[in-house]
Amino acid sequence: MNINLFLLLIFNMLFHPQAWAETEKARLFEESMCLQVKFAQGQPLEDLQMVKALGVKWVREEIAWSAIEQRPGIYNPLPESLKTRLAFYRKNNIGVIFIMAYENSVAYPNFKESPNHFVNEVAFGKYVAYMATQLRDSGVRFAIELWNEPHNSKFAKKEHFGGKWQGAPPSPWVDHYVMMVDEAVKRVKAIDPTIKMMTNDDMWIVHYHFLEKGLPQALDGFSVHPYTGGNPPELTAVKFDTDWTRPYQVVDQDQSFESAVRRLKEQGIKKMGKTPTIWVTEWGWGVGENSASGAVSESKIAEYLPRAFILSANAGVESMCWFSAMDGPDGPMGLKTNSGRKRLAYDALLKLSSTLGKTQFVCELKQPDDKKNMRSFAFRKQKSAHTTSQQEMIIASWNTSEAQNNGDVIYQPLVSDESTIQCK
After folding, report:
1. Within 10 Å of residue 81's Cβ, how many Cβ atoms?
2. Interior CA angle at 137 toward 215 and 324, to 5°?
3. Any bridge partners for residue 394, and if so which?
4. Which tens digit of pLDDT belongs to each residue from 29-76?
5. What's the burial of 57, exposed, middle or buried (CB within 10 Å: 0-12/13-18/19+)?
6. Residue 280, class by beta-carbon neighbours within 10 Å (0-12 exposed, 13-18 middle, 19+ buried)?
7. Judging by beta carbons within 10 Å of its beta carbon (0-12, 13-18, 19+), is residue 194 exposed, middle or buried?
8. CA 377: distance to chain centroid?
9. Model confidence pLDDT, tens digit, residues 118-162
10. Are 164 and 171 in contact (CB under 8 A)?
11. Is the distance from CB of 107 to CB of 69 less than 8 angstroms?
């Protein structure tokens, strides 16, 4: 973006006075930044230093249920490698979103009279409660994620519970998943009601069907994986009126990510009587992924990464986890390849955290009518003791037009009177 054009845009956004939202007590931007790590899938332990260097304050971790409980009701201690990671996270104030999954055919093999015993809901609830105590006793900051993409799980397949993939009734897999959630939430909240717990699925629509079935009121929120199907981060993969989401419209007519978050929160309020927290626990793009404008390149992903984090902050997401730290078995989606080469997205995340990590997100700024393809966001730097009405800020801006082929985020420092900021 031409720097003179950028400064002109900032002038236009500041021209009409408007009170700036109070953010003195707002959290730092880094506190919403998360990374999916793959230590359980072979990522070398020395990469813990990479996690620290990247400045994220959350990671997403896992260990298989069957690795902990191999005989019914008898739980193994946490592996030493996991204990090492938890101690590192605690020392460096990095929180852990811990996935509680997957089917446990070791301790609970299926049999004729119980063909879905490997996801026994009472056993699962007890296992989650055990893990909650282990995480609590480790001293690490943590939140519990109940399963990973259950609609893609074995127990959702037709040879087990079955039902519609998007969760529309009749879907016995949804009924059973909600029973598992009930058991886990009841048992964990009895131990400590402050432990944060979330349901999960990657598809927006599935959460609507979970809510319709009846989630426990003590549940804290939902985690989503808003993969865009090759679209840029501003747009969801699903449209306003999509046949398989009916009778629900999960996004606005503009197909915006922020509208999907807002609508899911509103549905949570309607069904649970409280505002749920929304966590994005996976988001990313694979090198070579198909899109409307061709294969997604490594440089394009580096453009999308900071935009995804900033849009998540704008939507009020609790934490956004980039997928992922390294490729592992999931294809070319990592900040690093399996051979250790750092992709351009690595540098983009490092730049984002070093530039905005210690700032506070304020708001999206209004754009002049002739610059509708521009998105700009204000971040407040910590105020100096010598500062009066003047505030140091950083404005992050980019062009959303794919035709321009230049969607890099530009970070521009700015000093201005707070009262002149014009939020959208």
Report:
1. 12
2. 65
3. 379, 413
4. 999 999 999 999 999 999 999 999 999 999 999 999 999 999 999 999
5. buried
6. buried
7. exposed
8. 20
9. 999 999 999 999 999 999 999 999 999 999 999 999 999 999 999
10. yes
11. yes
Kindly state the tokens that stand for 38. Answer: 């793959």
Q: What's the CA gap between 214 and 421, in Å, rounded?
A: 42
Return the pLDDT at 184: 99
Q: What's the CA gap between 126 and 341, in Å, rounded?
A: 41
Query: How far is Cα 223 from Cα 279, in angstroms, rounded to an integer?
Result: 4
Residues in the chain: 424
Half-sphere exposure of 49 (CA within 13 A, CB side): 2
The two structure tokens encoding residue 222: 């939902």
Structure tokens at 264: 């899911």
3-state secondary structure the chain: CCHHHHHHHHHHHHCCCCCCCCCCCCCCHHHHEEEECCHHHCCCHHHHHHHHHHCCCEEEEEEEHHHHEEECCEECCCCHHHHHHHHHHHHCCCEEEEEEECCCCCCCCCECCECCHHHCHHHHHHHHHHHHHHHHHHCCCEEEEECCCHHHCHHHCCCCCCCCCCCCCCCHHHHHHHHHHHHHHHHHHHHCCCCEEEEECCCHHHHHHHHHHCCCCCCCEEEECCCCCCCCCCECCCCCCCHHHCCCCCCCCCCEHHHHHHHHHHHHHHHHCCCCEEEEEEECCCCCCCCCCCCCCHHHHHHHHHHHHHHHHHHCCCCEEECCCECCCCCCCCCECCCCCECHHHHHHHHHHHHHCCCEEEEEECCCHHHCCEEEEEEECCCCCCCCCEEEEEEEEEECCHHHCCCCCEEEEEEEEHHHCCEC
* Closest CA relative to residue 198, chosen from 214, 181, 213, 212: 181
pLDDT confidence tier of residue 419, bands split at 50, 70 and 90 = confident
